[in-house]
């Protein structure tokens, strides 16, 4: 299912021309199989954390995340070579418990979310994503932690 969704949303600037007008960018071949990720993070009251994917410019992912309580969140990216602390913000919302969508990386770098628990109770964030990312990281005040990700060929159907 995720593979079908990915195939439907992929675009590529220099796609091979197609015989059907207007469809030249409907398919974007990639050099490697896509990755899949499913992860849960529990946030203490007022705690924040980032979860990001390493992506090349033009690669795509589909995602869904849900929480057990309300969070403030920011979906953003840090391009390779950008000054320290610089980020492109794609979406910023307060008091949300879910978000779903597709994303095409506008630059090579890390792209993902900052979630902040705004309640006085623990909140669990559950994210599921599939796409042409190479790695995932959690980032908090203690630093960056790499998460190894399986590719679609090693993921068992449910």
How does this model look, in words?
It is a single chain. The protein is mostly beta strands. The chain has one domain: GOLD domain (Jelly Rolls, Sandwich), CATH 2.60.120. The protein contains one helix and eight strands, in the order αββββββββ. Strands 1, 2, 3, 4, 5, 6, 7 and 8 form an eight-stranded antiparallel beta sheet that branches. A hairpin with a 2-residue loop joins strand 7 (133-140) and strand 8.
What is this entry, summarized?
The chain has 158 residues and is mostly beta strands. It is 5% helix and 54% strand. Strands 1, 2, 3, 4, 5, 6, 7 and 8 form an eight-stranded antiparallel sheet that branches.
State the secondary-structure class.
mainly beta
Could you spell the SSE succession in H and E letters?
A: HEEEEEEEE
Q: Supply the CATH class.
A: Mainly Beta
What is the general shape?
Answer: globular
Largest sheet: 8 strands, antiparallel
**Number of helical segments with 4 or more residues:** 1
Helix content: under 10%
Number of strands: 8
Please state the average pLDDT score: 88
What is the fourth-level CATH superfamily?
A: GOLD domain
Architecture, CATH level 2?
Sandwich
* Residue share in β-strands: over 45%
Q: What is the number of independent domains? A: 1
Indicate the CATH topology.
Jelly Rolls
User: Rounded to an integer, what's the Rg over CA atoms?
Assistant: 17 Å
Oligomer: single chain
Euclidean distance between termini CA atoms: 11 Å
Regions with pLDDT < 50 over 5+ consecutive residues? 4-15
What descriptive keywords fit this protein?
158 residues; Jelly Rolls; 8 strands; 54% strand; globular
């Amino acid at each position: 299912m995720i593979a079908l969704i990915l195939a439907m949303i992929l675009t590529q600037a220099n796609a091979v021309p197609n015989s059907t007008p207007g469809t030249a960018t409907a398919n974007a071949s990639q050099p490697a199989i896509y990755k899949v990720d499913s992860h849960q993070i529990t946030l203490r009251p007022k705690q924040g954390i980032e979860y990001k994917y390493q992506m090349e410019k033009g690669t795509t992912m589909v995602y869904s995340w849900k929480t057990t309580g309300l969070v403030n969140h920011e979906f953003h990216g840090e391009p390779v070579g950008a000054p320290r602390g610089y980020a492109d913000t794609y979406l910023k919302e307060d008091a949300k418990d879910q978000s779903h969508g597709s994303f095409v990386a506008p630059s090579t770098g890390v792209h993902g979310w900052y979630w902040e628990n705004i309640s006085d109770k623990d909140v669990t964030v559950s994210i599921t994503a599939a796409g042409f990312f190479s790695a995932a990281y959690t980032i908090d005040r203690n630093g960056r932690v790499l998460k190894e990700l399986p590719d679609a060929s090693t993921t068992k159907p449910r």
